[in-house]
């Protein structure tokens, strides 16, 4: 859904006007977490609330969290699915640390999430699910709704299942089918509490269930019942307003990281004039890139769902050999399977974009949880000397630009490029300012059109290089007079003939490395509002951008100075990085791994980077990084 910043979103407050007087509290930000069983529709509920917040004009950031198992046992903690949305009237960086409001649809959801709710926070529970069996299943000895478990919180007990069935009684739906709409009841209640627009959700439901209009109307009735419950019950004496954010003017839409990657690839295809083949195999959390790109055939996008990871990347590299742009998408386990073909792309020096949406490992690991532990695999996970550029987006919206940058490097330097997203970015969402297409970089390439042999033979030599980029000529198969050899055995410099000469192998290895080392990478930019007084630098890469940035804001509000910098290009690294690292007393590097980039920087720059790591399958909290940064600054200032 798109909206214009600073537009008329506030007019939507009049969509459903309260009939009774309630106190209206104006807030600058709110964090809401919807939690329930994986079959309770929490992802849809959270997504719809997010869409209405986006349409209203709030800045926002989301964090879906769902079970790794396809269908964990119902009512158990491993089966809990949640969706957290943080919306505000100013620029925000994270989905929020702790929810101000927890909507718990069953005992498992309450038990799994209550510890994150700060004292004084609001807890809304579906009392119908608190049966003795359901409570015993998750380890409650007594009823948490009746003992002191919820004493520190503002609690609203709502019989959502019963109220939903009552609202849908006239529809003729079965009890079971009617109860499935209780998530829409919860959405309606929260929409009333926070003055969210409602028309968009009703239109969405009619479109989603267009082939089942009775189901669409049932969900709309449940949604309205939740809104009316908030309006008529005496339980809620206060409603809340969060004004639209003052964002840069333009047209925005809510976007997830995977969707932004897909759109970036579409734009890259258009700006390069090349058809794109996505050769891939479905894998969590990267599958949505395939799903989205498959909708855009009219832009010259061909999607091929292969029988396995190896076939997927083989097709992609074959497309590049044929003059298209080959792309493949996967997660860490798939990168392991694709490694030989990536090495083939390094040797044949063909453009290829490899998207790795990282998840918890090793092996199958934690398919639905986030991690940053594939960095060393991306840098070195191939046999032989097989250097590839590596870049990492920092937010969901930034995935669009990262996909274009990966394409630029792949085409200009004739090389595979690894793009490291992760689960937090892929599934999270935020407003994206839709760019002017004409402002995007020109990615057009020139194919070889005539023989280029330097010995005057009139032949085409595939390894004659551009003196500036060291990229080899790219000849489309079938071009008259440009026959050449290509493949997985070492090539002779220039001619491309198979070569076992030791000196030639040494030369080719060094040429391929020099090509990657010579890629033009922008200098790293440091954010330091203190004007250079900061003695500590917070450095990061990938999805740690938001938590690090939010933590730095908090530290600065405490009156302390801290600088922040974030790396997009991980190979090659920015030329000024060494000088920046050496200009601070301490460099702290939070990573969702055991310190992989820290190890690389220590080895390359001989700087004692302070590594702070977390591999819990969840993003950093700004609160925890604030504490880490504060302690480090105090330690430095105490020396």
TrEMBL record:
Lineage: Bacteria, Bacillati, Actinomycetota, Actinomycetes, Pseudonocardiales
Domain Pyruvate flavodoxin/ferredoxin oxidoreductase pyrimidine binding stretches: 279-493
CDD domains: TPP_PYR_PFOR_IOR-alpha_like
Keywords: Oxidoreductase
Residues annotated as domain Pyruvate/ketoisovalerate oxidoreductase catalytic: 39-226
Coiled coil spans: none
Entry superkingdom: Bacteria
EC number: 1.2.7.11, 1.2.7.3
The name this protein goes by in its record: 2-oxoglutarate ferredoxin oxidoreductase subunit alpha
InterPro entries tied to this protein: 2-oxoacid/accept_OxRdtase_asu, Pyruvate:ferred/Flavod_OxRd, Pyrv/ketoisovalerate_OxRed_cat, Pyrv_Fd/Flavodoxin_OxRdtase_N, Pyrv_flavodox_OxRed_cen, THDP-binding, Transketo_C/PFOR_II
Listed GO MF terms: 2-oxoglutarate synthase activity
Organism: Amycolatopsis magusensis
Keyword Hydrolase: no
Pfam families (alphabetical): POR (PF01558), POR_N (PF01855)
């Amino acid at each position: 859904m798109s909206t214009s910043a600073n537009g008329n979103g506030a007019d939507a407050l009049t969509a459903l006007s309260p009939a009774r007087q309630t106190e209206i509290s104006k807030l600058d930000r709110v964090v809401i977490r919807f939690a329930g069983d994986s079959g309770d529709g929490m992802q849809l509920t959270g997504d719809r609330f997010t869409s209405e917040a986006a349409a209203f004009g709030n800045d926002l950031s989301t964090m879906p969290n769902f079970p790794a198992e396809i269908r964990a046992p119902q009512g158990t903690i491993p089966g809990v699915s949640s969706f957290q949305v943080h919306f505000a009237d100013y620029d925000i960086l994270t989905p929020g640390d702790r929810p101000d409001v927890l909507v718990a649809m069953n005992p498992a959801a309450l038990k799994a999430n209550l510890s994150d709710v700060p004292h004084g926070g609001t807890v809304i529970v579906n009392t119908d699910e608190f049966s003795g069996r359901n409570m015993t299943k998750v380890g409650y000895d007594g009823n948490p709704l009746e003992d002191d478990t919820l004493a520190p919180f503002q609690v609203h007990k709502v019989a959502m299942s019963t109220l939903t069935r009552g609202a849908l009684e006239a529809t003729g739906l079965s009890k079971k089918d009617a109860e499935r709409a209780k998530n829409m009841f919860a959405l309606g209640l929260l929409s009333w509490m926070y003055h969210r627009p409602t028309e968009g959700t009703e239109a969405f439901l009619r479109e989603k269930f267009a082939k089942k209009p009775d189901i669409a109307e049932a969900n709309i009735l449940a949604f309205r019942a939740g809104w009316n419950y908030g309006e008529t019950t005496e339980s809620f004496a206060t409603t809340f307003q969060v004004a639209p954010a003052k964002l840069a003017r333009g047209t925005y839409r809510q976007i997830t990281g995977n969707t932004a990657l897909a759109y970036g690839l579409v734009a890259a295809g258009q700006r390069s004039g090349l058809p794109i083949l996505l050769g891939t195999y479905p894998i969590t959390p990267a599958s949505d890139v395939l799903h989205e790109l498959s909708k855009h055939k009219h832009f010259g996008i061909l999607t091929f769902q292969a029988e396995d990871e190896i076939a997927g990347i083989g097709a992609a590299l074959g497309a590049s050999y044929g003059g298209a742009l080959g792309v493949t998408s996967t997660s860490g386990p798939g990168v392991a399977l694709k490694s030989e073909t990536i090495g083939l792309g390094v040797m044949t020096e063909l453009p290829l974009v490899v998207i790795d949406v990282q998840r918890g490992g090793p092996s199958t690991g934690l398919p639905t949880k986030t991690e940053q532990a594939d960095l060393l695999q991306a840098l070195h996970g191939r046999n032989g000397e097989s250097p590839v550029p590596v870049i990492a987006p920092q937010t969901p919206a930034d995935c669009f630009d990262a996909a274009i940058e990966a394409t630029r490097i792949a085409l200009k330097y004739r090389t595979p490029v690894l793009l490291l997203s992760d689960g937090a970015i892929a599934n999270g969402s935020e407003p994206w300012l839709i760019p002017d297409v004409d402002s995007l970089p020109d990615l057009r390439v020139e194919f070889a059109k005539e023989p280029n042999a330097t010995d005057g033979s009139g032949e085409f030599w595939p390894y004659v290089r551009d003196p500036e980029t060291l990229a080899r000529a790219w000849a489309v198969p079938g071009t008259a007079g440009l026959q050449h050899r290509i493949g997985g055995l070492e090539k002779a410099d220039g001619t491309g003939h198979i070569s076992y000469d030791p000196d030639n192998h040494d030369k080719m290895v060094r040429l391929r490395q020099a090509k990657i080392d010579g890629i033009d990478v922008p200098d790293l930019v440091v954010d330091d509002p203190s004007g250079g007084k900061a003695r500590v630098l917070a450095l990061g890469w990938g999805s740690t951008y938001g938590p690090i940035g939010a933590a730095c804001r908090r530290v600065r509000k405490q009156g302390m100075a801290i600088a922040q910098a974030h790396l997009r290009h991980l190979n090659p690294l920015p030329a000024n990085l060494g000088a920046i690292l050496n200009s601070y007393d301490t460099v702290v590097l939070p990573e969702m791994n055991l310190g992989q980039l820290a190890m690389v920087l220590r080895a390359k720059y001989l700087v004692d980077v302070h590594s702070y790591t977390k591999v819990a399958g969840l993003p950093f909290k700004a609160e925890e990084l604030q504490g880490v940064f504060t302690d480090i600054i105090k330690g430095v200032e105490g020396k």
